[in-house]
């Protein structure tokens, strides 16, 4: 993962880098560093273990310059130490490099090209910068040395390189890791994410894989690795500076949970016209119509959103849906149907595992649709079609509004396809109206946050383990609810099919084990889940129920407003997001930046 920021030609380089790193911190937060330079040989390199705030504390007013590169790290090779933190320097210290990604052949490079080199840390990045330095020592120009290294290096990378003898230039290249150019007035920038540059500019330029960019204060020269010039238009980002602030919220996660009613309404206005007609791109609808099977590929929360949408898609479109864990399918693609359609669900649009699947699908000529929150992201660029989630930037590592937006976006797609197929269920489903009711139901659940906070204090304050149980769609919501709880509270939690518990896992239930039960399906299903609740309660479990209105009974803990069954996963997940939030808060953890995690998982 990791985040990269660089700027050339701006006297406030240090400030730009630090502000950028703060915005990129969601990408990794175990160590960070910056290199700033003004005139040849005057560079300053400052690194720190820990958060960006720890790095900031080490930066005095003397750390100034007009060119610089910065990095926030999520460790892959080597622990989170200062020696392993970026930027890294070449053997003589002349070249300084930041990197996001994984260099697969770094040990081979070390053996073949770097005999006699002493390395300070254990990272693959340090080997890359030593390699470039070595080629310059051997007599190549900086550009030639960089190109030669790029021809040798295998794996994923986004690089920004500075030559301390010529600080007017940043050399940039990428393969499979995100990187973007930001165009300023009299200066230019490079960064992993537009969000980190939006304070300075809204003009951006994409870099594609295996392209090299020579960046100076007033020039951006893009070529392929053989030196052939590439023409690339700039574009204006729709992002707003206020979108990426926390406002008065203590954490981004709470802000993003609260934004969900707005996101539902935004999706209505995006994918339906004033008369309620669905406006999903007809080319996408046709492509899905032609498929004999829909394959949804995703990771983590996005994968859970795919499951939560499966039966709705199947009912509305009459097309079977199969789910795949992207990290598995990238290397173990199962036997596919005759006319498959791949849907890549991804908040970030940058998940390396999902991209691996997409690369394969493209090679096999399979039509694909990326449903993502980030326009211009890698998955969006490389798929046949894109649908955007319009959820606004999601910054907390724990995904909330992207999950609900994914289900809603899939509902629009399914309705459009079902209508085109003449399916009665789709024609009769008033999605615009039903989604407005969902938005109200979310608002009602959000207004109950204090009740939820108290329930969590009683149930989860000290527990190490917990279970979420449910049947049908509630089971899929249970999967997401347990992921959310694990991710930010560090409580080991499993989402389980309620009826499956007694086939083995019930042996884990003991006095006080928290079991959170979700009930939103029919009376019959609800009755069965209540039976399973009795079974765990009889063995000492401490049970909390989240029940849809109409199926509720006296003594239930949280009652959720009733919505259309196709959309119940959206309304049922809301209390579970708050449960995870308060469990993390009450344990004194960093809600937005849980340990060991990063927001965009750009390594396989
Ligand atoms: C969600 O809370 C997680 N942070 C994680 O599971 C995430 O959903 C997963 O890494 C997939 O990311 P994507 O949606 O950006 O592809």
What does this structure look like?
By secondary structure, the chain is an alpha/beta fold. The chain has three domains: 3-243, Glutamine Phosphoribosylpyrophosphate, subunit 1, domain 1; 245-443, Rossmann fold (3-Layer(aba) Sandwich); 448-590, Rossmann fold. The protein has 19 helices and 24 strands. A hairpin with a 4-residue loop joins strand 9 and strand 10 (188-191). 55% of the residues are buried. The structure holds 2-deoxy-2-amino glucitol-6-phosphate (AGP).
Helix-strand category: alpha/beta
Instruction: Write the CATH architecture name of the largest domain.
Output: 4-Layer Sandwich
Let me know the largest β-sheet: 8 strands, antiparallel
Helical content (DSSP H or I, runs of 4+) = 25-40%
CATH names the topology of the largest domain as: Glutamine Phosphoribosylpyrophosphate, subunit 1, domain 1
What is the mean pLDDT? Answer: 94
Number of helices: 19
CATH class of the largest domain, named Alpha Beta
Q: How many distinct folded domains? A: 3
Count of beta strands:
24
What is the alpha-carbon Rg in Å?
25 Å
| Large-scale geometry | globular
- CATH homologous superfamily (4th level) name of the largest domain: Aminohydrolase, N-terminal nucleophile (Ntn) domain
Largest beta sheet: strand ordering: 3-2-4-1-10-9-11-14
């Amino acid at each position: 993962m990791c985040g990269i920021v660089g700027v050339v030609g701006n006297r406030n380089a240090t400030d730009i880098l630090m502000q950028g790193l703060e915005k990129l911190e969601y990408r990794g937060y175990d160590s960070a560093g910056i290199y700033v330079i003004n005139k040849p040989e005057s560079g300053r390199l400052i690194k720190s273990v820990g958060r960006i705030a720890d790095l900031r504390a080490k930066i005095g007013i003397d750390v100034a310059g007009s060119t610089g590169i910065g990095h926030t790290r999520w460790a892959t090779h080597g622990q989170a130490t200062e020696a392993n933190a970026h930027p890294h320097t070449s053997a003589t210290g002349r070249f300084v490099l930041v990197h996001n990604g994984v260099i697969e052949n770094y040990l081979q490079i070390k053996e073949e090209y770097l005999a006699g080199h002493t390395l300070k840390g254990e990272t693959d990045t340090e080997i890359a910068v030593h390699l470039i330095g070595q080629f310059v020592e051997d007599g190549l120009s900086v550009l030639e040395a960089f190109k030669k290294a790029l021809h040798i290096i295998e794996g994923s990378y986004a690089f920004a390189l500075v030559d301390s003898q010529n600080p007017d230039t940043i050399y940039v290249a990428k393969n499979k890791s995100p990187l973007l150019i930001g165009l300023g007035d009299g200066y230019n920038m490079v960064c992993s994410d537009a969000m980190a540059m939006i304070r300075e500019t809204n003009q951006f330029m994409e870099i594609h894989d295996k392209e090299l960019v020579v960046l100076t204060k007033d020039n951006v020269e893009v070529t392929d690795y053989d030196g052939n010039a590439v023409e690339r238009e700039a574009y204006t980002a729709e992002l707003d500076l206020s979108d990426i602030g926390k406002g008065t919220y203590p954490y981004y996660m709470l802000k993003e949970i609260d934004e969900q009613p707005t996101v539902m309404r935004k999706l209505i206005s995006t994918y339906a016209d004033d008369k309620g007609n669905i406006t999903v791109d007809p080319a996408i609808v046709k492509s899905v119509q032609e498929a004999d099977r829909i394959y949804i590929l995703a990771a983590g929360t996005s994968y859970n959103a795919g499951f939560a949408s499966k039966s709705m898609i199947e009912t509305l479109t009459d097309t079977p849906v199969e789910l795949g864990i992207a990290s598995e399918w990238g290397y173990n693609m199962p036997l596919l149907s005759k006319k498959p359609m791949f849907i890549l669900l991804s908040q970030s649009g940058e998940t390396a595992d999902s991209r691996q699947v997409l690369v394969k699908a493209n090679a096999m000529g399979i039509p694909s649709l990326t449903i993502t929150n980030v326009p211009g992201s890698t998955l969006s660029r490389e798929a046949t079609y894109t649908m955007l989630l319009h959820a606004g930037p999601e910054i907390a590592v724990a995904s909330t509004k992207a999950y609900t937006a994914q289900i809603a976006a899939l509902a629009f797609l399914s309705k459009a396809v079902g209508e085109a197929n003449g399916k009665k269920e789709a024609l009769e489903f008033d999605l615009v109206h039903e989604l407005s009711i969902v938005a109200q139901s979310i608002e009602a659940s959000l207004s109950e946050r204090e009740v939820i906070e108290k329930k969590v204090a009683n149930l989860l304050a000290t527990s190490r383990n917990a279970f979420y149980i449910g049947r049908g769609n509630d089971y899929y919501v249970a999967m997401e609810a347990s992921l959310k709880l694990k991710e930010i509270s560090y409580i080991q939690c499993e989402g389980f099919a309620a009826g499956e518990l007694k086939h083995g896992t019930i042996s884990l239930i003991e006095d006080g084990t928290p079991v959170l039960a979700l009930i939103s399906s029919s009376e019959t299903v609800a009755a069965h889940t209540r039976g399973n609740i009795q079974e765990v309660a009889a063995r000492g479990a401490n049970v909390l129920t989240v029940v849809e209105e109409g199926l509720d009974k006296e003594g239930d803990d949280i009652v959720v407003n009733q919505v259309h069954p196709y959309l119940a996963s959206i309304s049922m997940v809301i209390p579970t997001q708050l449960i995870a939030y308060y469990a993390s808060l009450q344990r004194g953890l960093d809600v937005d930046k849980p340990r060991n995690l990063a927001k965009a998982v750009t390594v396989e």
